[in-house]
Design goal:
heterodimer, A: 284 residues, alpha/beta, Rossmann fold, two-stranded antiparallel ribbon, 8 helices, 24% strand, globular, B: 433 residues, FAD/NAD(P)-binding domain, eight-stranded mixed beta sheet, 17 strands
Chain lengths: 284, 433
């Protein structure tokens, strides 16, 4: 199989700070990590490699420092790593990002046809969940999002069956390869790479592609120029002041009475609404 | 697949990176293994960097390293509950071209240092724990076993720079468990403030810094001290005492730190700051007498793992770097002479250390840990007596100065007794001689 995994290096949001005066995100000094949702995709790709044999190419668009993230995926056991890096890519929104990645994937596909493209469900810094589906649309392939399990792959029939998480339960979907998959969190646990892979990752000469290398003909569609999204305002929401009220009592009746009294005193309109509903009920 | 290097360095703190850097620069094949996610991720220090040791290894470090403030003023405070007696030294001399000490952030500094190691040609692999040393049938160390699958790696020499706990040296039977009377537990918090506010509060210019060391009743008779250091955008404040003293009960480490932060001399320095980070670490403070065996067939120990910390002068990372450098130079010299890394040949490393400030300074204070353990009133009684003496002299209350002098002498004699005072002076002089 030929698999491409798209990843993103993100600031560790657990350690991020918002500048108290300018309200901008302070990235300086904040450690960067592989977007945690991408790790599920990498592990799933590695499991397919264990099962079917596969070449896994990891792809990211970012500044030079994203090299660390790529190198780490090689430690896990990925085969190749490509860094799409160009000044023209700076300031990309999801539209421009998906274009850049899709173009590079098309180029990889020319050398050897791709069976599956994996993406993270979403990133922890942007949280849009748009890039994966965007790539699928641009490539014209099926998109399987929020996948909790790859049930089977029939390479001869070029079919894949998966479980997809939806709010009401699980969908069982079957589609044709090639396809794009984003994985639901908790599907698997990323492995700890072998020493051999750690050495390979340390020695690996990373592949770097500029906009031209990636096959992009019109750079005005990339980066800031190709990004219609505008950040109008960034602000830190003020902390919630509501406190949890603990309700206790001797008997269930007392507890429920206290609960209702507390609710009505906190939300006076609620009492009236409920009264209206109940009186309608009586009139019927 | 078997990988073999000239040298393996375990740990990417100052000692390990100094060793790896010097060897890689000399053209040796070096593998540096670090258990943390990145170099510096497991490390905690105040942190003040003394320039000299690093300058001898990387002369151009001032242009590249992430340095925060050039420390131009050192304050030593002896605290009682309500007052402090201070000794300040501030000098424009510290503002020369090559300042002598800086505040740093270890997480950033260690990363920078280890990047230099990579640039020098060494291979650095993080998130890899070295579980054990591999010995051949003659008991010579020939490599390490890591926690990764197919994780054995081989080398002619293994340098242990795995920090204060040095699990590796213990597992290998090269040293004993850390003793609680020789180990300090330090807790530290980073309090963020705008840099101009820090500069106003400490009476310094941009990029200038102050380091305050505090001793006294704040440790409640435990052997230890506190510190307050200025970084660019935060104040580091911490306190550490011997683990054995904490075991005996009393205030917890963070309890002591809370009291320090509430001290009337300290509190105004921290007002309106935001605590963003806290950490804790062990420091080997046993001094000269607690230094374990530092070399053997195919191995050497450097830095905190070797217990190379001068607790009296708060020096540690400089000694770590110097020991790393000496270990590396020993390896390079033996390679050049086509000599083996036998225990006999590696004795050169110890000789180099013995002849340097590292062991000379530790020897000078070798009686200090024992002295302090037996003379805890230096942390409780004396600060009170001295503070009271100064208050007496400064008080304008109609009593003549000669009577005040007598009053002070009486209070000292009452507090400690004439023989106690004489004995303390003799013991103190002996301990630092």
């Amino acid at each position: 199989m030929n698999i491409v995994v798209c990843i993103k290096q993100v600031p560790d949001s657990a350690q991020i700070r918002v500048h108290p005066v300018t309200n901008t995100i302070m990235r300086q000094g904040v450690p960067t990590i592989i977007n945690p949702f991408d790790l599920f995709s990498i592990e799933e790709a590695l499991r397919l490699k264990d099962q079917f044999g596969a070449k896994i190419t990891v792809l990211t668009m970012g500044p030079k420092m994203a090299e660390q993230a790529l190198r780490k995926t090689l430690t896990f056991g990925a085969d190749e790593a490509i860094l799409l890096t160009d000044r023209a890519f700076a300031g990309s929104d999801t539209l421009a990002t998906s274009l850049t990645l899709a173009t590079a994937i098309t180029k990889i596909n020319e050398t050897k046809p791709i069976d599956i493209v994996f993406c993270g469900k979403q990133t922890i810094d942007g949280d849009t969940a748009q890039v994966g589906p965007g790539i699928a649309v641009r490539l014209g392939i099926q998109q399987l999002t929020y996948i909790s399990k790859i049930v089977s792959i029939d390479l001869d029939a070029r079919e894949i069956i998966v479980h997809r998480c939806v709010e009401s339960g699980t969908q069982v979907l079957k589609t044709k390869l090639p396809c794009l998959i984003t994985l639901f969190e908790g599907t698997n646990v990323i492995r700890f790479g072998t020493m051999t892979n750690a050495f390979r990752a340390a020695r690996y000469k990373l592949i770097e592609w500029s906009a031209t290398d990636s096959g992009i003909s019109d750079v005005s569609q990339c980066g800031l120029r190709g990004s219609p999204t505008v950040v109008k305002k960034v602000f830190a929401p003020s902390a919630r002041t509501d406190k949890t009220i603990f309700i206790s009592g001797e008997t269930p009746e007392i507890i429920s009475q206290t609960l209702i009294d507390t609710l009505f005193s906190s939300y006076p309109s609620l009492q009236k609404d409920l009264f209206d509903i109940s009186s309608q009920g009586v009139s019927k | 697949m078997t990988e073999k290097f000239d040298a393996i360095v375990v740990g990417a703190g100052p000692a390990g990176s100094a060793a790896a850097y010097v060897m890689a620069k000399a053209g040796l094949s070096v593998l540096q293994l670090e258990r943390g996610e990145y170099p510096g991720s497991k490390n905690v220090q105040g942190a003040i960097l003394y320039s000299d040791a690093l300058e001898r290894i990387i002369p151009e470090f001032r242009d590249e390293a992430p340095l925060e403030r050039n420390i131009i003023e050192q304050r030593v405070w002896m605290l009682t509950d309500k007052s402090h007696v201070g000794f300040d030294f501030r000098s424009e001399e510290f503002n020369n071209d090559k300042p002598d000490r800086y505040s740093i952030i270890r997480a950033q500094f260690d990363r920078w240092f280890c990047n230099k190691v990579k640039q020098a040609g060494a291979m650095v692999i993080c998130e890899t724990l070295v579980k054990a040393l591999i010995e051949n049938e003659h008991g010579r160390v020939i490599g390490v076993t890591t926690d990764r699958d197919d994780g054995d790696v081989f080398a002619d020499i293994v340098i242990l720079a795995d920090g204060v706990n040095s699990n590796l040296a213990r597992v290998s039977g090269y040293r004993n468990e850390l003793e609680n009377k020789n180990t300090a537990l330090v807790v530290k918090e980073m309090h963020f403030l705008r840099s101009d506010i820090i500069q106003n509060r400490f009476n310094i210019n941009e990029k200038e810094g102050v380091a305050i060391e505090v001793v006294g009743t704040l440790t409640r008779g435990k052997i230890g001290m506190g510190f307050i250091y200025t970084n660019l955008e935060f104040i580091s404040i911490g306190i550490g005492c011997m683990v054995g003293d904490f075991q005996k009960g009393g205030l917890t480490p963070y309890g002591l730190l809370d009291e320090l932060k509430e001290h009337p001399s300290v509190k105004p320095l921290l007002i309106s700051s935001e605590m963003k980070e806290y950490s804790a670490h062990l420091i080997p403070e046993g001094g000269y007498n607690a230094i374990p065996k530092i070399y053997g067939d195919g191995w050497m120990v450097v830095g905190d793992s070797a217990g190379l910390v001068n607790s009296i002068h708060r020096e540690g990372s400089n000694m770590a770097m110097t020991s790393g450098q000496f270990a590396a130079e020993t390896v390079i010299a033996l390679k050049k002479e086509f000599k083996s890394f036998s225990e006999h040949n590696l004795a050169r490393y110890k000789i180099a250390l013995d002849n340097s400030y590292v062991i000379k300074d530790l020897k000078k204070y070798k009686r200090m840990p024992n002295f302090l353990h037996k003379n805890r009133h230096f942390f409780t009684l004396y600060p009170e007596l001295i503070s009271e003496a100064i208050a007496t002299i400064l008080r304008v209350d109609g009593i003549d100065k000669k009577s005040k002098g007598k009053q002070i002498i009486r209070s000292f004699r009452k507090g400690r007794g004439l023989f106690g005072l004489i004995a303390d002076s003799i013991k103190f002089v002996r301990a630092i001689r």
